């Protein structure tokens, strides 16, 4: 970890485009990328594999603290490896998404993952995507973006994404799921989803990906140079 490396935090609700924008910004600037949601997803998958009760905070936190993971990069794509196995697809499954949202609400799990996230900070800089990057994990980040979009637009985006992968889902179910996750992420006691006081809020409901990218790069230019 390098404490003087600049950090760009991109927080926001599910489907707002954080992951897409974070990757584009990191590629453009040659920065390291932290997908913090993947850490919660990996914790959830490891807990499900071990058949641990997801409400057992102590045991899930122990799993989070001892995760044997690494992120591998091939052809510009990042894959998540748990105990030597590529689980990139597994952690995106619906049951893991739901489980991740549950384990992410446990304070001891968040605490167990805190330093692991901070360890991603290195020169020339880091782009960190999640829910509490700007509020809790990197409160001193010089650039903080809170990316949002209406729940309906986020459900439509997810629908198109899943259809593109040949997964059949109902738009109505996706919208319900998004609302349920928003509610859990925003109303938990530990590090709830919220913009940091010094974050710039960007509503991408009617803004194309390229235009969001340009806005973020302008902010970076103004604040980091
Ligand atoms: N501004 C935009 N306009 C249209 N589509 C977008 C926009 N931003 C992202 N998308 C699309 O929306 C989908 C969801 O984006 P992405 O996975 O980046 O969201 P996310 O906020 O990281 O979600 P999660 O937190 O659930 O991982 C992707 O298919 C992406 O291409
Ligand atoms: N910093 C973070 C990142 C993610 N979470 C939660 C929110 C989701 O329920 C789950 C998976 O995240 P995603 O991959 O969809 O971004 O993890 C969080 O609480 N804090």
From TrEMBL:
Reaction it catalyzes: CMP + ATP = CDP + ADP; dCMP + ATP = dCDP + ADP
GO terms of molecular function: kinase activity
EC number(s) per entry: 2.7.4.25
Top-level division of the source organism's lineage: Bacteria
Keywords: ATP-binding, Cytoplasm, Kinase, Nucleotide-binding, Transferase
List of residues binding ATP: 12-20
Localization per Swiss-Prot or TrEMBL: Cytoplasm
InterPro entries recorded: Cytidylate_kin (IPR003136), Cytidylate_kinase_dom (IPR011994), P-loop_NTPase (IPR027417)
Positions of the Cytidylate kinase domain: 8-221
Cited SUPFAM superfamilies: P-loop containing nucleoside triphosphate hydrolases
Chief place of localization: cytoplasm
Family listed: Belongs to the cytidylate kinase family. Type 1 subfamily.
PANTHER family cross-referenced by the UniProt entry: CYTIDYLATE KINASE, CYTIDYLATE KINASE/PANTOATE-BETA-ALANINE LIGASE
Name this protein carries in UniProt: Cytidylate kinase
């Amino acid at each position: 970890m390098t404490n003087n490396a600049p950090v760009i935090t991109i927080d926001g609700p599910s489907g707002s485009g954080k992951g897409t924008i974070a990757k584009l910004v990191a590629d453009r600037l040659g920065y390291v990328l932290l997908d913090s949601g993947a850490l919660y997803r990996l914790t959830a998958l490891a807990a499900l594999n071990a058949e641990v009760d997801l409400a057992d905070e102590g045991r899930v936190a122990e799993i989070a603290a001892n995760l044997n993971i690494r992120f591998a990069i091939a052809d510009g794509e990042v894959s998540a490896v748990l105990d030597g196995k590529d689980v990139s697809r597994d952690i995106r499954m619906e049951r893991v998404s739901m489980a991740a949202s549950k384990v992410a609400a446990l304070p001891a799990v968040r605490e167990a993952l805190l330093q692991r996230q901070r360890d991603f900070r290195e020169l020339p800089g880091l782009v960190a995507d999640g829910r509490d990057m700007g509020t809790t994990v990197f409160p001193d980040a010089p650039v903080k973006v809170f990316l949002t979009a209406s729940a309906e637009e986020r459900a439509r985006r997810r629908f198109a994404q899943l259809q593109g992968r040949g997964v059949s889902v109902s738009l109505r179910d996706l919208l319900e799921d998004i609302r349920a996750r928003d509610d859990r992420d925003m109303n938990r006691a530990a590090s709830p989803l919220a913009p940091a006081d010094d974050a710039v809020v960007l509503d991408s409901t009617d803004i194309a990906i390229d235009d969001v990218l340009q806005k973020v790069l302008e902010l970076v230019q103004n604040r980091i140079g």
